[in-house]
Sequence to fold (288 residues):
Amino acid sequence: MIPTIVSTWPHGLSANRAAWPILSARDGDGSAMDAVEAAVRHVESDPDVRSVGRGGYPDRLGRVTLDAAIMDDAFRCGSVAALEGVVHAVSVARAVMERSEHALLAGDGALEFALSVGFERERLLTADTLALYEAKQREARAGTPNFESHDTVVSLAVDPSGHIAGASSTSGLMNRLHGRVGDTPIIGSGLYVDGEVGAAGATGHGELAMRVAASALVVERMRCGASPLDACRSVIDMIRDRLSPRPDQQLALLALTTKGEVAAAALLPGFAYAQSDAEGHRMVSVEA
Ligand code: SD4
Fold:
């Protein structure tokens, strides 16, 4: 069913609602690329989402570093890694794609590029997130930390013309070392799009997705004839069987085909995504 947009986690629902007018434009001209960027920007702006954009959780040094990516159906892509001080990392990623000759910019260079093309610098660490960070640091000193965190936003959309695109943004796992880059900005790991087949994205413990290029693997399995559900499940099964994740490590994969078929699979219970299409906006829970 097209157009369709899917976005990870409960914050995906308001993200989809924000993007839907773009995707379903009356003249049938909705752009998948504009829609996924709008969806992700919506989550980046929300200070109450602790894992993305403003209010995102800092690294061990207390610095909020953002990873983001965007990709269209002609293998055009842009990413930023460990970007500090710019809330809409996904739009910087799009600028990398559209206004530079590169696919990925990191750290200070990503910030310099963002400022040079007109993005503004701002403080992303909110008082609430700072208080949470300090509480977690106290827990860590007491030897009882719980750092499990996995709410990256990934949005995948197919528009009325059949164009498909994906975008993602995260502040990364809690308690990460300064300089750690996760799966989100690594094309093929946290996000992948092939205009002949579909798109896939990952959320959860990024290292698990990076070790097997999980999103590219899902799309390639769909190309070879697997349904989106079988593709997602087979990659999750492979990660469970061959990478031996810790019992508390979550990884979820979400897939969308160019025909608007959607599926997801996860290592652990608790993953949900928002789906919006002609039948409306709704949350879908995924069984592990
Ligand atoms: C990462 N995948 O940096 C991200 C973390 C996250 O939902 O929150 N995923 O590993």
Notes: Residues 62 and 133 are 8 Å apart (CA to CA). The longest helix spans residues 127-142. The helical segments are 11-23, 32-45, 89-99, 107-116, 127-142, 206-212, 214-223, 228-243.
